[in-house]
Amino acid sequence: MPKLTPVLGNPHSAVRVCSLLILTFSCFVACDSDATLGPSSNVVVGRIYAGHGFTCGIAEGGTGLCWGINDEGQLGVGGDILFGSALRIVSQDLRFVELSTKAAGRHVCGITTSEEAYCWGESDFGQLGNGSSIFRIGPQLVSGGLTFVSIAAGWRSSWGITTDG
C-alpha cells in the first residue's frame, strides 16, 4: 500500500480539496466534474504546492493548475472566482518547470520552459516583481528581462537565481 502524503497549506491542505495519492514524485488528482481540463476529471500532477487556502501544481507537459481560494488572484486564472474546488488552468500559453508558494503566501511565482519568471496573486509589497503593489489575477512577467534557474515565493517576498548566477 503506497504511503499517502498530504500537502499542507494554511489553513487547508490539498487533500481537503481533491483526493491525492502521491507516488514517488507525482500524484493522481481526482477533482470535481466541472474541472476545465476536458471531458476527463482526472489528471496526473507531477508537483504540488500549497499556499494560504489554495494549491497549485504542474501537470504533465508543464501546464500550471491551481484550485482553492482566489481572493488575491492567487489561482492565476483571471476572473473573480472566489473559491474553486475544480482544477483551473493558469495559462493556455505558458509551460512551467517550477512553481513556488508558501503556506502563509497568497502569491505564486513560476519558471517557464523558456526560463522566464512569472508571478501572480497578492503584491502588497511588490512581491510579483513587476514594479507594482497591486494584486494580479493572471501571470505577470517578472521585470528586467532576466532568465531564471530557480525561484521562491515567500510570505511577502520573492527571490530567484538567474541563469547567469
From TrEMBL:
Gene3D superfamilies: Regulator of chromosome condensation 1/beta-lactamase-inhibitor protein II. Keywords: Repeat. This is Uncharacterized protein. It comes from marine metagenome.
